[in-house]
Fold these 2 entries.
Entry 1:
Amino acid sequence: MSIAMNAALFLHLAAVVVWVGGMVFAQFCLRPTLADVSPQLRLPLVEAAFGRFLNWVGVAVFVILVSGGFLLVAFGGGRAPWPLHLMAALGVVMMLVFGHLRFAVFPRIKRAVQAQKWPDGARAVESMRRLVLVNLVIGFVTIGVAVYSRGF
Ligand code: HEM
C-alpha cells in the first residue's frame, strides 16, 4: 500500500474508533450509570453529553466517508472486492441512522429539556438509545465485513 493509502486507512480506523467506541461508552457505561438519576438531572446531562458526542461523530462520519471513498477508489472502484462495497453500504446505512438521530431525535431532547417536559424528553432519549444500539450492531458487523474483506 502507498503512503497515501496507509494514511487514509489510519484516519479511517481512528474515526471508526471514535464513533463505535463512543457508542459503547454511551450504551454500556453512561446509560446504566444514569438509570437511577432523576429526569430533572439526567436529561440535561444526557443532552450536554450527546451534544458534544454527536459533534465528534459528525467529524468521524466526514473522515470515514472521505478516507473510505479514497480507499475504495484505490482498491479498484467498481471492481473492488464485494465485501468493500458491502462495508460502504453498511457505512451509509449507519450514517443515515446517525442523521436521523442528530437532526430529528436529538432536537426533540433539546426542546424537552428547554421546556422541562421530562416525559417527552425520556421518550426521545429512549428513541436515541434504540438508534445507538442499531448503529452499534451494524458497526460491529461492518468491522467483521472489513476483516472478512482481507481474504479477497
Ligand atoms: C462510506 C463508508 C465506507 C467506505 C467507502 C469504506 C471503505 C473502506 C476501504 C476501501 C477499506 C480498505 C480495505 C483494506 O484495507 O483491505 C476500509 C477499511 C476498513 N474499514 Fe471501511 N469503509 C466505510 C465505512 C466503514 C465503517 C462504517 C466501518 C466500521 C464501523 C469501517 C471499518 C473498516 C475497518 C475496520 C477497515 C480495516 C480493514 C482492514 O484493513 O482489514 N468502514 N474501508
Entry 2:
Amino acid sequence: MKPISRFDDFPAYTPIEPYDVLSARLGIPADQIVKLDANENLYGPSPKAIQTLSSLDDTHIYPDPESRALRGALAGYTGLPVKNLLAGAGADELIDLILRVMIGEGEAVLSFPPTFGMYAFDARLNGAKLIEIPRRDDFSLDLAAVLKLAETFHPKVIFLTSPNNPDGRMITEDEFEAILSLPVLVVLDEAYIEFSDSGLGKSNSRIGEVLRRENLVVLRTFSKWAGLAGLRIGFGAFPEWMLPVLWKVKQPYNVNTAASHAAIASIADQDYLKANVARIITERQRLLTALQKIPFLTPFPSRANFILCKVTGLSAKALQGELMKQGILVRYYDTDLLHDYIRISVGRPQDTDQLVEALQNVSWEKGEYHENRFCSV
Ligand SMILES: Cc1ncc(COP(=O)(O)O)c(C=O)c1O
C-alpha cells in the first residue's frame, strides 16, 4: 500500500525561477536580465560582507546554535537586549517557527490580504484555521471587521506588515494600537522598514516596542536592505515569555555560518548599505513618476522597494509575459483581490530606464484587451 501524506492536497507555493534557469528558457544571458520580480536589492551586499564570505575558515564546523556573535551585533544595531533577539534562516523561518509554537490544530490565525503569501502558507502548514480579512481599496485595514472577527474566532496570532507587500503602505498608529489592544499575539513584519525611513534620521521600526508590549513580535530581515536574500538571514524581537519555547523548538543549526558572518559584516558596513537604500528611495520616486506616464498603468505610492500598479487595457499576465520576453521580470497578480496588477521592484537607474523603454514598446488597447492583437513593437 502506498503511504499517503497529510499534505497530499496542500496548495504548493510558487517560488521564483533562478537566473540560470530563466536565462536558458528565455535565451537571454543572465547578466542582461533585469530582475524586478522579488524585491531583492540589485546593489547587492556590502563589500565587507563579500570579503568576509571569501575568507571564511570555519565552514567545516557546525554554526553556533545560539548565534551569539550575530545576536550581539544585532543588539548593538537595534538597541534591544540580546535575550529578546532570535535569528532565523530568513524572516520566513521565523514565521513558521512562531506558528509552530503558538498554534494548536484548528486555532485561528488572522491576516489581511493582499499581503505576503507566507502567512497563509505557514498557517495552513501548521494546521491553523486561516481567517483572511481583505483590505479596503486603499489597502488600509477594515478595523471594524477585525474587531468583530477577533471576537468570533479568538485568533492566537495576527500578522501585520509594514510596509505591506505588495502595495507598500505603512500601518497607521491607530491601526497598530487597535490591533495590539486585542488579546492575541501580533507579529509585525518589517521586512521593508528600512525603505520607509526618510534618510539618516530616526528609524520607523517599532522593534523597540517589543520591550513594552507582552503581545508583540517584530520581524526584520537582511534580504532587502542588506542585499543578502540568497543567504537566508533574518531576525525577530520577541517578548521574554516566548523565548524559552522558541529556543526549544527551533532547529539547532538554523542560521548557517556564512549568513551569520555576512550579517555581522553588513551591520559593520551599514553606512555603505544605507547609502544604497537612499539611492533606492530616490529611484522609487523617479520610477513612480515614469510609471504615472504609462497610459495602461496606475501606480500606487509606496514606502517599500517596490511599486504596485493596476493594469488596464491588457491583462497583467500578458504584460508580464511581454516584459519577460524583453528580459525584464516583474510579478503579476490575477487574484480575486488583485485582478490585473503588477508589482515592480525598485532597482538601479539603469534598471528603471530599461523597464520604461520596454513598457513604452508594449501595445495596449483602451477598453478591451485582445490577446491576438497584442504584440511588442
Ligand atoms: C513582507 C515580507 N516578509 C518577509 C519576507 C521574507 O523575508 P526573508 O527573505 O528574510 O525570509 C518577504 C520577502 O519577500 C516579505 O515580502
